[in-house]
Amino acid sequence: MIRVPRLVVSIHDVAPPSFEPTKEILARLKTAGVGRVSLLVVPNYRGQWRLNEHGDFAAWLQRRQEEGDEIVLHGYEHIEVKPPRGIRDKVRNRLYTVHEGEFLSLSYEEARQRMESGLAIFRNIGIASAGFVAPSWLLSQPALAAARDLGFEYTNYYLRFSDLSRGQTAFAPSLVFGPGNLNEEWTLRAQSLMPRLLNRCSLVRVVIHPPCIENSRRFSQILQLIREQVERRRPSTYQEFLIDWREREATPLRAQG
Question: Closest Cα partner for 248 from 172, 195, 131, 170?
Answer without folding.
Answer: 170
